[in-house]
Amino acid sequence: MKSKPKIVANFKSSKKGLYDVCIKDVKFLHQPCDDCDSEEEANAVVMTLSSFLNQDKEQSLGLAANQVGILKNVFVAWLQFEDGKKLIAFGNPKTISYGGELVKSEELCFSIGSSKPYIVERHTKIVIEDMFNGEVTLTDEDAFVVQHELDHLSGKLISDHGKPAWRQPFKRVFDKVGRNEKCICGSNKKYKKCCIEKIDLDG
After folding, report:
1. In this predicted structure, what is the pLDDT of residue 8?
2. Which of 26, 127, 179, 180 is 20 to 30 A from 111 (CA-CA)?
3. Nearest residue to 132 via CA among 17, 22, 41, 14
4. How many angstroms separate the CA atoms of 157 and 174, rounded?
Protein backbone atom coordinates (compact mmCIF):
# COMPACT_ATOMS: atom_id res chain seq x y z
CA MET A 1 0.00 0.00 0.00
CA LYS A 2 1.11 3.60 -0.49
CA SER A 3 3.13 5.20 2.29
CA LYS A 4 0.15 7.58 2.65
CA PRO A 5 -3.03 5.53 2.21
CA LYS A 6 -6.47 7.11 2.27
CA ILE A 7 -6.91 7.01 6.06
CA VAL A 8 -10.30 8.19 7.30
CA ALA A 9 -10.06 10.26 10.48
CA ASN A 10 -12.03 12.85 12.45
CA PHE A 11 -15.39 11.54 11.32
CA LYS A 12 -18.58 11.82 13.35
CA SER A 13 -20.09 8.51 14.42
CA SER A 14 -23.76 7.95 13.76
CA LYS A 15 -26.01 7.36 16.76
CA LYS A 16 -27.67 4.52 14.86
CA GLY A 17 -26.23 1.02 15.12
CA LEU A 18 -24.74 -0.53 12.01
CA TYR A 19 -27.21 -3.41 12.05
CA ASP A 20 -30.08 -0.89 11.99
CA VAL A 21 -28.79 1.08 9.00
CA CYS A 22 -27.66 -1.83 6.83
CA ILE A 23 -30.12 -2.67 4.06
CA LYS A 24 -31.51 -6.22 4.12
CA ASP A 25 -33.29 -5.99 0.74
CA VAL A 26 -31.60 -8.74 -1.28
CA LYS A 27 -32.97 -7.46 -4.60
CA PHE A 28 -31.38 -4.04 -3.97
CA LEU A 29 -28.10 -5.54 -2.73
CA HIS A 30 -27.79 -7.67 -5.87
CA GLN A 31 -27.45 -4.53 -7.99
CA PRO A 32 -23.84 -3.76 -9.01
CA CYS A 33 -22.54 -0.33 -8.03
CA ASP A 34 -21.51 2.43 -10.45
CA ASP A 35 -18.16 4.23 -10.41
CA CYS A 36 -18.02 7.69 -8.90
CA ASP A 37 -17.58 10.50 -11.42
CA SER A 38 -15.08 12.38 -9.27
CA GLU A 39 -12.93 12.09 -6.14
CA GLU A 40 -15.19 14.69 -4.53
CA GLU A 41 -18.23 12.46 -5.03
CA ALA A 42 -16.33 9.47 -3.66
CA ASN A 43 -15.20 11.46 -0.60
CA ALA A 44 -18.80 12.32 0.21
CA VAL A 45 -19.70 8.64 0.18
CA VAL A 46 -16.66 7.84 2.33
CA MET A 47 -17.80 10.30 4.98
CA THR A 48 -21.25 8.71 5.05
CA LEU A 49 -19.85 5.19 5.39
CA SER A 50 -17.39 6.26 8.06
CA SER A 51 -20.15 7.79 10.16
CA PHE A 52 -22.01 4.48 10.16
CA LEU A 53 -19.16 2.03 10.56
CA ASN A 54 -18.89 0.84 14.12
CA GLN A 55 -15.50 1.71 15.55
CA ASP A 56 -15.26 -1.76 17.07
CA LYS A 57 -12.61 -3.09 14.71
CA GLU A 58 -13.24 -6.71 15.70
CA GLN A 59 -16.97 -6.74 14.93
CA SER A 60 -17.28 -4.37 11.95
CA LEU A 61 -14.37 -4.77 9.57
CA GLY A 62 -15.81 -3.07 6.51
CA LEU A 63 -18.79 -1.39 4.90
CA ALA A 64 -19.75 -1.00 1.24
CA ALA A 65 -21.83 1.88 -0.11
CA ASN A 66 -24.75 -0.23 -1.29
CA GLN A 67 -25.19 -1.61 2.23
CA VAL A 68 -26.46 1.82 3.27
CA GLY A 69 -28.46 2.50 0.09
CA ILE A 70 -25.80 4.20 -2.08
CA LEU A 71 -25.11 2.44 -5.39
CA LYS A 72 -21.58 3.80 -5.75
CA ASN A 73 -18.32 1.91 -6.05
CA VAL A 74 -16.89 2.86 -2.64
CA PHE A 75 -16.10 1.01 0.56
CA VAL A 76 -14.20 1.54 3.80
CA ALA A 77 -12.38 -1.15 5.79
CA TRP A 78 -10.33 -1.55 8.93
CA LEU A 79 -6.91 -2.78 7.76
CA GLN A 80 -3.90 -3.84 9.77
CA PHE A 81 -0.76 -1.67 9.98
CA GLU A 82 2.33 -1.95 12.17
CA ASP A 83 0.85 0.53 14.65
CA GLY A 84 -2.64 -0.99 14.68
CA LYS A 85 -5.77 -1.00 12.54
CA LYS A 86 -6.72 2.05 10.49
CA LEU A 87 -9.90 2.83 8.59
CA ILE A 88 -8.98 2.96 4.90
CA ALA A 89 -11.21 4.26 2.09
CA PHE A 90 -11.34 2.83 -1.43
CA GLY A 91 -12.94 4.58 -4.41
CA ASN A 92 -13.72 2.88 -7.74
CA PRO A 93 -11.62 -0.20 -6.83
CA LYS A 94 -10.68 -2.68 -9.54
CA THR A 95 -9.21 -6.13 -8.98
CA ILE A 96 -5.87 -6.67 -10.71
CA SER A 97 -5.05 -10.19 -9.56
CA TYR A 98 -5.57 -12.90 -6.96
CA GLY A 99 -2.81 -14.97 -5.40
CA GLY A 100 -1.75 -17.09 -2.47
CA GLU A 101 -3.90 -19.99 -1.35
CA LEU A 102 -7.63 -20.48 -1.76
CA VAL A 103 -8.95 -21.08 1.74
CA LYS A 104 -12.29 -21.29 3.54
CA SER A 105 -13.22 -18.20 5.52
CA GLU A 106 -16.05 -18.00 8.09
CA GLU A 107 -17.76 -14.64 7.58
CA LEU A 108 -20.65 -12.65 9.01
CA CYS A 109 -22.52 -9.82 7.32
CA PHE A 110 -24.90 -7.19 8.73
CA SER A 111 -26.86 -7.25 5.47
CA ILE A 112 -27.61 -10.96 5.89
CA GLY A 113 -28.93 -10.40 9.40
CA SER A 114 -27.67 -13.72 10.75
CA SER A 115 -25.54 -14.12 13.86
CA LYS A 116 -24.09 -17.34 12.41
CA PRO A 117 -21.24 -17.34 9.87
CA TYR A 118 -21.18 -18.48 6.27
CA ILE A 119 -18.24 -20.41 4.83
CA VAL A 120 -16.80 -18.63 1.79
CA GLU A 121 -13.70 -19.43 -0.28
CA ARG A 122 -11.23 -16.54 -0.34
CA HIS A 123 -7.74 -15.97 -1.71
CA THR A 124 -5.05 -15.15 0.85
CA LYS A 125 -3.70 -12.44 -1.47
CA ILE A 126 -5.36 -9.84 -3.68
CA VAL A 127 -4.01 -6.88 -5.67
CA ILE A 128 -6.41 -4.02 -6.39
CA GLU A 129 -6.20 -0.47 -7.70
CA ASP A 130 -8.37 2.51 -6.75
CA MET A 131 -8.52 6.30 -7.06
CA PHE A 132 -7.29 6.98 -3.54
CA ASN A 133 -4.49 4.50 -2.93
CA GLY A 134 -3.25 3.45 -6.36
CA GLU A 135 -2.16 -0.18 -6.56
CA VAL A 136 -2.55 -2.07 -3.27
CA THR A 137 -1.50 -5.59 -2.27
CA LEU A 138 -3.40 -7.12 0.63
CA THR A 139 -2.88 -10.46 2.36
CA ASP A 140 -4.55 -12.76 4.87
CA GLU A 141 -7.37 -11.15 6.92
CA ASP A 142 -7.07 -7.83 5.07
CA ALA A 143 -7.46 -9.71 1.78
CA PHE A 144 -10.57 -11.48 3.08
CA VAL A 145 -12.14 -8.21 4.22
CA VAL A 146 -11.50 -6.48 0.90
CA GLN A 147 -12.84 -9.43 -1.11
CA HIS A 148 -15.99 -9.38 1.05
CA GLU A 149 -16.54 -5.67 0.31
CA LEU A 150 -15.72 -6.07 -3.40
CA ASP A 151 -18.38 -8.77 -3.56
CA HIS A 152 -20.89 -6.28 -2.13
CA LEU A 153 -20.00 -3.69 -4.76
CA SER A 154 -20.51 -6.25 -7.54
CA GLY A 155 -23.91 -7.23 -6.14
CA LYS A 156 -22.86 -10.48 -4.50
CA LEU A 157 -23.57 -11.62 -0.92
CA ILE A 158 -21.85 -14.28 1.14
CA SER A 159 -25.12 -16.23 1.02
CA ASP A 160 -24.80 -16.39 -2.79
CA HIS A 161 -21.59 -18.40 -2.87
CA GLY A 162 -21.06 -19.55 0.70
CA LYS A 163 -22.59 -22.30 2.82
CA PRO A 164 -23.93 -21.62 6.31
CA ALA A 165 -21.42 -23.03 8.80
CA TRP A 166 -24.27 -24.59 10.78
CA ARG A 167 -25.58 -26.50 7.73
CA GLN A 168 -22.49 -28.43 6.75
CA PRO A 169 -23.03 -32.01 5.50
CA PHE A 170 -23.64 -34.63 8.20
CA LYS A 171 -20.59 -36.80 8.79
CA ARG A 172 -21.37 -40.35 9.97
CA VAL A 173 -19.26 -41.41 12.94
CA PHE A 174 -20.14 -45.11 12.73
CA ASP A 175 -20.97 -47.34 9.78
CA LYS A 176 -24.69 -47.91 9.40
CA VAL A 177 -25.81 -50.95 11.39
CA GLY A 178 -28.70 -53.20 10.42
CA ARG A 179 -31.39 -54.01 12.97
CA ASN A 180 -30.49 -57.71 12.99
CA GLU A 181 -26.71 -57.24 13.08
CA LYS A 182 -24.59 -57.45 16.20
CA CYS A 183 -24.72 -54.29 18.27
CA ILE A 184 -21.72 -51.97 18.07
CA CYS A 185 -21.40 -51.93 21.86
CA GLY A 186 -19.91 -55.44 21.84
CA SER A 187 -22.67 -57.17 23.79
CA ASN A 188 -23.15 -59.82 21.05
CA LYS A 189 -26.87 -59.02 21.12
CA LYS A 190 -28.75 -57.93 18.02
CA TYR A 191 -28.75 -54.18 17.56
CA LYS A 192 -32.59 -54.05 17.64
CA LYS A 193 -32.60 -55.68 21.09
CA CYS A 194 -29.74 -53.64 22.52
CA CYS A 195 -28.76 -50.01 21.76
CA ILE A 196 -31.19 -49.11 18.97
CA GLU A 197 -33.10 -46.76 21.27
CA LYS A 198 -29.90 -45.21 22.64
CA ILE A 199 -28.12 -44.56 19.34
CA ASP A 200 -29.77 -43.44 16.12
CA LEU A 201 -27.53 -44.35 13.19
CA ASP A 202 -30.18 -43.91 10.54
CA GLY A 203 -29.80 -40.10 10.25
Report:
1. 54
2. 127
3. 41
4. 36
Q: How many degrees, rounded to 5, is the angle at CA 146 between CA 157 and CA 86?
A: 130
CA separation, residue 29 to residues 12, 63, 72, 199 (Å): 26, 13, 12, 45
**What is the reported pTM?**
0.75
d(CA 144, CA 120): 10
Is 121 one of the catalytic residues? Answer: no
Domains (range + CATH), the chain: 18-167 (3.90.45.10), 173-203 (no CATH)
**Phi, psi (5° rounding) for residue 198?**
-90, -35
Helix (H) or strand (E) holding 194: none
Query: What is the chain's percent helix, strand, coil content, to nearest 5?
Result: 25, 30, 45
Task: List Cβ neighbours of 149 (8 Å cut-off, separation of 6 or more).
Answer: 62, 63, 64, 75, 77, 90
Secondary element (H or E) of residue 151:
helix 140-153
**How confident is residue 170, by pLDDT bands cut at 50, 70 and 90?**
very low
Question: Does pLDDT of 119 surpass 80?
Answer: yes
pLDDT of residue 20: 73
Around Cβ 26, how many Cβ atoms within 10 Å? 12
- Between 69 and 114, the more confident residue is 69
